[in-house]
Amino acid sequence: MKLLRSVLLATGLAAAILAPVAASAQDIKPRLIRFGYGLSENSNQGRAVKFFVEEMSKRSGGKLKVKGFADASLGSDIQMQNALIGGAQEMMVGSTATLVGIVKDFAVFDLPFLFNNEQEADAVFDGPFGQKLAAKLNEKGLVGLVYWENGFRNLTNSKRPVEKVEDLKGIKLRVMQNPVYIDMFNSFGANAVPLSFSELFTAMETGTVDGQENPVTTIQSSKFYEVQKYLTISKHVYSPWIVLASKRWYDGLSNDERTIINEAAAASRDFERKDSREASKQSIAYLKDKGMQINELSNAELGRMREMVKPAMDKFAAEGGADLLNELQAEINKVRK
Ligand code: TF8
Question: pTM for the complete prediction?
């Protein structure tokens, strides 16, 4: 009894003495953090990863060393997600659309024509709705840190200009591995072919697919203009990226280390969105210069596409997504006011 009391006293005393020391000297261990991504180093994704690498180094006195792996060299989005869950890789950035096999709710962001502009998107992703979805990743072994901008998606193909939706008929169009995208493009009359991004360039080069859809920044940085003649500005979906950490790994970090990662991630989000938006303004002229033939879909045509895609929206709602979609639309309406 006496012994127990003195042990308790001693440990209490030790804690009291050590506490101020711990607060001034941060608890950071030297670590190597592998951060994988699918686009090239010379892309908005690559530039933002580089920014994150530098922020982490600055904020940790060089102890938290992040190494970026571009071009899906650690695997496709889905492969990396699984590596994070298993603890074989620490971090990544990728599309939320490829997360639907893990958290089905993310499919709500794949529905077309939800957001009118980037500001609406920022407010929803950074607000309670976006945060609630990100939190659902925790029980699946992932930590959703921040959303970056991928951007509004547009169509490219090698067959013909798409001026009306009928022009998509029979076009083999690569989509992300996601049921909403498959339903959407089949509703437009295309033949949707789900494929990982890392296989896309070759698939277009060899004619396995005729077209794809992505933001203009990606069409530029992934050199799709080399294998695609026609670009149609359709802005059919606003697509986010999400920066993920392995939960198994993240849980083993100190509070100080986690704080640095969270703050560096927030800084990278602001950098990435600004950079992507600036870059996208240059892309159209760049792609024209590279020989792409570019047209913009009229509002009337976009209206027809909204009608055509209704069954796909209804299917999403009927399969349990109704409440989530209503909630998202209410959030967007709040920003619109
Ligand atoms: C796609 C996405 C890509 C992402 C990226 C490789 O088409 O738009 O930007 O998956 O992380 O797959």
Answer: 0.92
